[in-house]
User: Fold this.
Amino acid sequence: MPWITFGIMALCLFAHLFLSMDVGAKEKQLGNSAEELVTYYFNHPYLELNPEIKKLMFSGGDEERLEAMLSAYRQMVPRPDRQIVSQEQEKLDQLGTALLSSLNDVPYRKWGYIPADRSLLALMTYMFVHGGWLHLLGNLLLLYITGPFIEDLWGRPIYAAFYLTMGTLSALMYASHFPNFSGPLIGASGAIAGVMGAFLINFYKTKINFFYWIGFFFRGTFEAPAFIMLPLWVLLEFFNARVIDSINAQGGGGGGVAHWAHVWGFVFGVLVALGMKHLKIEEKYINPKIEAKIHSGEGAVDIVITAMHKKNMGRIDEAYDILLEEARRNPMRKDVVDALWDVGLEMGNGEEAATFFVKLIENEVRHDQMDVALKRFMDLKSKFPQASINANYKFALLKYLTERRDMEEAKKLATELLEEVGSNSSFVMLQNFAELAKKLSPSLAKKTIELCLNHPEVPVDQKEMLKDDLKDLDGGTEAP
Assistant:
């Protein structure tokens, strides 16, 4: 189990829930402090505003307009004597101190990494803080689909150190782009980008499923290998980073999405993974320790873990042979057959692996485990369409789809089944098939009834009823 990945996800979730309870009150307090200070300052325009406060509240091209406005106010508001001005200046300074205190109490600034401050503690804490549920869940999804593989490949200690290092380096490189930025950097995306970079080097052939939604009608899924999609992602991040650079031409910006942190995290992840491969660190130090743990205990070896570890080491032929041998000994062991199926497809041995996968599906149908059987059957048809299961088991799945009202999938399966049944099939099964087909479409019903009529074992009384059914479907035309 990828406990480090799950632990990071849990920490991010816990931190978000904990900080969310405090953010609203702190931001309200900050807003009140800012409103009080601005009101007091504009009522006393002859006072001197702390440069840090002025930069914080009136940066971004508003300085000249602010000074022009204050000059007009100064001419309208008479300046009192020195003693009163001193008292008012003291009050303004107190309001400024209160504002800064309120600002620093906001959780995002308290725990986020601020490039202008360079807090060492914040270099660790910032990567567990997120700005909203969408920000959090998006990051956790990317970590979930890449992190467990790197954790399994490198082991927990190295993976944990790698993750924290990637988060630290990406923050430092972001700060090098925006050294004077006084806003907080938050989120795990820099560290996760590093994991994605390592994933690209070690699992570049892996196919990733994507979901797309364009407008209301155009949606679906597609599959693409990591070596295409991950470089495209980092190129898009690089482009967005350069766009932000052009917007913040003065160099003091950096707000919004931290694209440079993503880019540098990914680059560092790639470099670390390449370095480990070049120095053979995995082969010399990591793999022997992991294999020793796998083989420890009472002499029992977890076949699937051993095989997956060999696959991750690039020894996919050995992984397949281990799984194939175990599948032959125990063809109903689901974890072995599932692993054999995945490795076999990756190697191009789908036909051999499919024979075990089909037996497993048929066994699940026999034991009325319809949910898992249907899921595996859909996987079989999508990845190896030439493979199929026995027609009787396929009819059982068709019946199950109809019962749960999944009519579109039921029609597809009925059309497929129609090509496989005939005079050699059981008349009872064909008759039941015809009853189901009536719920799906008239054309399917007609074809199944015709198969029943042509079956050599059709009873006479049933034949007349079938002819009546066919006549109804033909809209009154006499049946043959």
Q: What stands out?
A: Residues 296-301, 476-480 have pLDDT under 50 and may be disordered. The domain at 301-386 is CATH 1.25.40 (Serine Threonine Protein Phosphatase 5, Tetratricopeptide repeat). The longest strand covers residues 207-214. DSSP finds 22 helices and two strands in the chain.
